[in-house]
Amino acid sequence: MLLLYTEALAHLKKARKMAARSFNIQSVIRILVELNASLAEREDREAVLNLAGLYRYMIHRLSTAAEPGLGAALIEVERLLQTLSDGWIQVIQTDDPEAPFPDSLESDDHRPPPFSFPAT
User: In 3D, which of 11, 52, 14 has the Cα closest to residue 33?
Assistant: First the structure.
């Protein structure tokens, strides 16, 4: 999940520049579709419905924004994804306080952070 958020955020930052904007937006939409599809396996029905609605909203914003309003849509979706990513990082850190996560994913490096799944 966190890796998909990181990848989507990297594509959104690239999409803010004019070069390959369409490719990057389509990449983010594909990631959001994948994230939405992964929700079917979750047990918390309310969380699933809330996340599904949020993913659909972000897909809608990216796919319907006209060029003059596209910058605002990119920023809005980026903020939403960053909030979700930060939330997952906090959940994982709460499960394992010594997990090697950075304080922020705001680097220009865009590689996923070192990651280990908590023991189940």
Answer: 52
92 or 102, greater pLDDT: 92
Which residues, 6 or more positions from 82, have their beta carbon under 8 angstroms from its beta carbon?
A: 9, 105
Q: Give, in order, the Cα–Cα distances in Å from 104 to each of 47, 87, 109.
A: 24, 12, 12
**What number is the average pLDDT over the span 95-103?**
56
- Mean pLDDT throughout 48-71? 88
Q: How far apart are the first and last CA of the chain?
A: 17
**Which residue, among 12, 32, 33, 7, has the nearest Cα to 23 in the 3D structure?**
12
50 Cβ contact partners less than 8 Å away, ≥ 6 residues apart:
none
Q: Residue 111: helix, strand or coil by DSSP? A: coil
Tell whether the model's pLDDT for residue 71 goes beyond 90.
Answer: no
Q: State the Cα–Cα distance between residues 111 and 97, nearest whole angstrom.
A: 22
- Rounded CA separation 32/52 (Å): 9
